[in-house]
Amino acid sequence: MRALLIRLYPARWRARYGDEFAAILEERPLGPFDVADIVLGALDAQLRLRGRGATIRQGRGFTVSLRIGGFAASIGALIWTVFFLQISPGKPFQGGIAILAFAGLLALLVAVTGLSAYQARSHPRLVWTAFAMTAAGTVAMAIGAAADLTPVGAGGWNEALVVLGALAAVVGSALFGIATYLNSVPMRGAAALLVAVPAIGAAAFIVALVSVDLAYLFMFPTYICFLAGWGALGIQAIRLDRTTTSPGLA
Amino acid sequence: MEPKPPEFGKFAEPSLLILVSLSDGPKHGYAMMQDIERGTGRPMGAGTLYAALTRLEEQGLIEPLTPVDRRRPYRLTAVGASNLAEQLRGLSAFAQQGLRQLGESQP
To answer: With a cut of 0.85, is the ipTM above it?
Structure first.
């Protein structure tokens, strides 16, 4: 993967910096944050060597950071709140619900990428699995959302994709929650909420085998944990970013 | 006419952090990343680091030294040190003004 990432840079850049850059990448495990940062760095190098660097220099380009991840997590939580308010048992997905779910999951994918800088160093496999689950869910949601816009979605199979995407989001979020919790970054409370989601969801499933009505009582805390977990993670990341913006190097 | 200060755009902050990191002696890329993270509490990705390093080298504010085991150290040039001092004085004056306005004047 490291060799592939270095290949994204222009040949002239690689000739000058490639060896030392490769040595840096070998120093520690790479997470989604690092990969996104390198891809954007390669894009910057490509544009600069093609004489288009001025556009990037003067613009406020996309920078992978805690702030971006924090905002994405908060926006994702908001979108999912609207999603949960729109759905009701037995009612088919209509009026762009799948598109809403896709937008929510895309925001969470950006959040996992932006917030994974610390976690990926100590638990790279866990973070990459969380990222892969969320990414797979996003693709399923994208197909479901695309079908929602066309007559082919009327068959209802797109709903199955949305449900699969949502399950992937729950598992991905829980894995990311575990990685965050284990990393001892000051987001453990929010991370614990995300870890609780599949546990409560599984309890709801077991209860549903006995009484469907009773299972709905479990669904509400599941939604709350998911939304509160991502919302709190987002707010804490933004606050953490704000408190550490002033350079303290001496 | 005063010389125009170098433009770093979105890499302005990483550039300043790199210059500060090099202010106590030459360092290779990974050591800079660790130093910056220790000082600011925020990670700096390798992509951001090298985007800023490239610009700083082009501007003549830092210079590469001979690599040791594929790790190439960089050091501040005289122009880089002077540019860093100017930036830090500007930041300090700005901070002092802000604190005065808040009524928390510093000794």
So the answer is: no
